[in-house]
Structure formats: structure tokens, C-alpha cells
Amino acid sequence: MDYRKLVIAAFAFAIISLIVHTIGAFASMGYYTNPAYFSMWSSLMMPGPSPPGWEFYATSFAVALITGAIFAYIYGIMKVAFAANPKKNFKRPTPTAIGLEFAALMFLAVSFTSAMSSWLLFSFPLGLQCEWLAEGFAIFMLFGVALGRIYG
Length: 152
Hints:
The protein is built from 5 helices and no strands. With about 150 residues, the protein is mostly helical. The protein has one domain. The longest helix is centred in the middle third of the chain and has 30 residues, at about 55-85. The radius of gyration is 17 Å and the shape is elongated. The mean pLDDT is about 90.
């Protein structure tokens, strides 16, 4: 395992995640500013009727670094299996294609199943859950491209 690549990938995931979630927050701002939903947010995210403080962003970045490192570690192990499985045309897949295939698998295994569980367990608005699912898809696909380039 190349730990230098793992750290670079973890930072890539954290940065991609921060950018996509920020854009997503602006797109779905109505949910975050609606007083009917204030009780759903943690005190770390919404300490009051104002935007999140630096503590939320620092914690989010740390969590994204850990998440990115976990996914990069799994990718480092599974990359060989994806590369050894050529498709119909028997050409070796490109690193980007391998990264995207891994990302799609992780999206389905993690984000999609989590979204389905959240829908069953929590009273978040369906529109917001769909927004989060779209954000997860974008993050995983962009990270898949990054993984392909980082790991080659």
C-alpha cells in the first residue's frame, strides 16, 4: 500500500466533498433556513439561527479525510480486481474507468443504501434526501476520477 497516495486521495475526497456539499447546501438552502426543520439539525451544524461555525467545517473536513482514507484504502486493495476484469472488448480498462467503476460500486453500497435506510428511519424531507443522494453520487464519481489519476 502506497500511503503517500492514500493521503493524497484522502485530501482529494475531503476537498471534493466540501465543494459538492457547499454547492448542494446553496441549492437546497430552503430546507436549512425553514424554521420547521430547525430541530432536525445538530447543535454543531446549527448552533443558532445562523450559518454553521468553523467547528462544523473543521469537523466535517476531518470526517471527510477519514472517509476518503477508508475508501482509498479499499480502492488500493480492489483496484487489481477491477483491472483484471476486462469487459466485452477485452481491452484493459483505463485507470479512470477503474476509478469510476469502483466509485459506482461504493455509491450503491454506501450512499444509496444509507439513503434508503434514512428514508425509512428519519423524517427528513424527501426532496432533501434526494439532494443528498445526488451530492453523494457527484462526490463518488468525481472521487473515482481522482482515484484513477492518483493511483494510475
